[in-house]
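Journal club prep — side note

Before the paper discussion, L.F. wants everyone to see what a predicted structure for a comparable chain looks like in token form. Sequence:
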Amino acid sequence: FKLPSDSFKYLSWCDIEEHDVRGNQLHCPRVREGPSEEELFFRGEEHTLKKRKQVTDTEKWQKKLQENWENCAELNLSFQDLGDLHQVENFKRILQRLIRVEKLWLVDNSLTDLSAIRLPRCRELNVNKNYFTSFKQLPKMPQIQHLSLAENNIMTLSGLSDFRHTPLESLILKRNPCEFQERYRQLVFSSLPNLKMLDGIPKLPEDCSPPDIRFFFRMCTIL
């Protein structure tokens, strides 16, 4: 059965009767809580209140088991609007369970640090439009092949060489401050010799030469 919508849009799928949808079958599930009852009333959506009910700790644990995140191979958790600490913690709890995910989208979630997360099978990660400032803040991804970090706040290329021992082939750093470094492409390819594509452009012959590091001395003569 397909999941119903509208009056059920603030409920988790395991609260809805007569469906057999599993967590790993959802294209873009929401992990944040819905509006409060008071806010729903002022929105004119009080018809959704009748579907809500109090659940015990045992029922909550059973729901977590039903989520079945461990079997997800592809998952889109973008645009989650994580405005509360509880939502962020719940979001990271789910990420920690993604032991088999291979493709993961976390676009526009205001994320700042996922260094405590390990994604052992992840081959493709999209974290565009977040607040990462360093490569050290990314999850541990020993199998990563395609990484997209566009529109973050990464200032320098420090820490990029940590991906040298991964099979990383494609990297996107568009609209990050580090993109404006002198000899940017050569520095990236120097740190990642096995990289094949940067910002959607294949590796060019001029990208293979080592960065030209020269020191200029100026002499001032005082008469």
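L.F.'s comment for the group: The two ends are 90 Å apart (CA to CA). Keep this in mind when we get to the figures.
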